[in-house]
Amino acid sequence: MSVRELLIARQPVFDRHLETAAYELRYGQPGGHAGAPSTQDAERFLDTILDLGLDQLVGARAAIVAFPPSFLSSSLPELVAFLPADRLMVLVELPDYLRSDVRDALRRLAHHGCQILLGLDLLETHLPSIDDVDAVRVRLPDPIVLQEQRIRLEALLAELLAPLASFRSGTLRVLVSDIRTYHEFVVCRDFGVDLFQGPFLFRPLIVRGYQRPVSDAALLLLSRLADPAIDFEEIERLLAQDVQLTYKLLKLVNSVWFARRSRIDSLRQALLVLGIRNVAAWVTVLVLAGIENKPVELVRTAVLRARLCELLAAATGSASRETAFLTGLLSVLDAALDRPLEAALAPLPLASEVVAALLEQRGPLGRLLQLVRAYESGDWPHLADLPLAASVVTEAYIDALAFTAEVLGALEQAS
Are 271 and 369 in the same domain? Predict the structure, then answer.
C-alpha cells in the first residue's frame, strides 16, 4: 500500500505582517472526520514526511501537526529522532493535554526540539499550568453567533486572553484561528495576538471609495487575453507594448516551464511554443504578483490552486488543462482586486463554462474547483466521492506544491 494513499493539505498561519509564519498540515481519508485522523493515518503521514522531506510540504517554515493521543503518547516520541523536530509544532487539545501519558510524551518531544501548541476551548477560564507550552490556539466563533448573542468581538477577545495574561510575560504566543474577515484580523492584531489563521486573506476587502489595485492597462490586458477569440497578432502586439512585462514573462517561462528544455528568447517564440492560452495564464500570474499590499500567500495559493486544477482535469479528462489552470488562477481575483468576484470578472470576456465554474460552481470546471477548495481546506468529509484514488490526488497536490515553489522563486528573480 502506497504511503501516499492519504490526503494531505496545508493551511497557512500568518504573523502580524501577514507573512506566512507556518503551515498547519492536515491529513486523513476521503470522507473521514475532519481534524480526527486515525493512528494508521498518522503512521502513513510520518512515512510520507520521511519519504518526501518536510521542505516539500512547507518549504522552510514550521509545520503544525495534530496526532491522535494514543499515537502521540506511544509511537511519536520514539520516531521524533528521525524527524526535523526543530520545525515541528505538535498541536494538542486541552482534554488530551491533561492526560499524564500525553504530558510525559510532550516533555520528551520538547526535549528533542519540538514546539507545543495547545488548543483551548473558546472561553477556558480555569487553565492548568502551561509553562511547558510554546503557543496556544483559540478559535473565533462564527460572526452570526456573536451577533445573536450580542457579544462584541473586542469584549470576547478581552475575556479570551485574560486567563493567558500571566503566561504571556514569557515567550508564550497566541494563535487565533477561524478568522473570517480582515476586520477580525485587525481587531485580533490590535489586541496583541501573535499568529492568525483563517480564510480572511482570500476574501475581498470591500471599502468605500474603491481604487483599483492594478492599472487600467493591466485590466485591459487581462480582459483581452481572456477573450477566446483573441488572435496571435493582437496578443503579440499587446504584450510588446509593455517591455517590463515581456521581460518578466520570458524570464518566468524560462525558469519554470522550460528549465530543462530549449530556451525561449522572444514573445513570438513563447506564443508559438506555449500557445496563447498558456501565455495568457502566465501573464495573469505576473499581474497578480504585481498587485501591491497583498501578501505573497495570495499568489502562492492562486498558483497552487491553478496547478492542482490543471493536473486533476488531466487525470479525470473533465476539462482542458489550460482552461482548468486559468480557472484556478482567477478564483482568487476577488481577493486580489478587493471586489466581489462577479464584478472582478465582469470586464473579462471569459468562456461561459469558466464563469459558471467561478460564480456558481457549475459544470465540470465548477466541480473540479469545488474539489480543489475542499482539498486545500482539509475538508475530508466532503471528499467522500473523490473521482480519483487518494494517492493520485495527493501526488498531484505534492506536484503542485513543488511547481508553486518553483514559480514563486522565478517571480522573485524576475522582479
Answer: yes
**Whole-angstrom distance between the N-terminal and C-terminal Cα of the chain?**
44
Residues 169, 225: one domain?
A: no
pLDDT of residue 210: 47
pLDDT averaged over every residue in the chain:
86
**pLDDT tens digits along 134-158:** 999 998 887 777 776 777 888 888 8
* 151 within a domain of the structure (yes/no): yes
Decide which of 212 and 141 is more confident. 141
Question: In this model, does residue 213 exceed pLDDT 70?
Answer: no
Residue 3 pLDDT exceeds 50: no
121 plus 256 within the same structural domain? no
- Nine-digit cell string for 337: 482586486
One domain, residues 252 and 142? no
| φ, ψ for residue 302, nearest 5 deg | -60, -45
CATH of the domain at 240: 1.10.3210.10
Amino acid present at 236: E
Which letter does DSSP use for residue 15 in this model? -
DSSP label at 348?
S
The CATH number assigned to the domain holding 90 equals 3.20.20.450
The domain tally of the chain equals 2
The percent helix, strand, coil of the chain (3-state, each to 5) is 55, 10, 35
User: Distances from the Cα of 313 to the Cαs of 295, 316, 365, 386, 396, in angstroms?
Assistant: 28, 5, 8, 13, 11
Q: How confident is the model at residue 386 (pLDDT cuts 50, 70, 90)?
A: confident
Backbone angles phi, psi at 375, to 5 degrees: -65, -50
- State mean pLDDT over 259-280: 76
Mark whether 105 and 246 lie in a shared domain.
Answer: no
> Is residue 271 within 8 Å of 232, Cβ to Cβ?
yes
Domain that holds residue 408: 216-414
Taking residues 124-130, report their average pLDDT: 72
**Pairwise CA distance, residues 403 & 371, whole Å:** 19
E strand or H helix that includes residue 365: helix 363-376
Rounded to two decimals, the pTM is 0.88
H helical segments located in 80-152 = 94-97, 100-111, 143-149
Answer yes or no: do 236 and 174 share one domain: no
- Statement to judge: residues 344 and 282 lie in one domain: yes
Helix (H, G, I), strand (E, B) or coil at 29: coil
208 in a domain, yes or no?
no
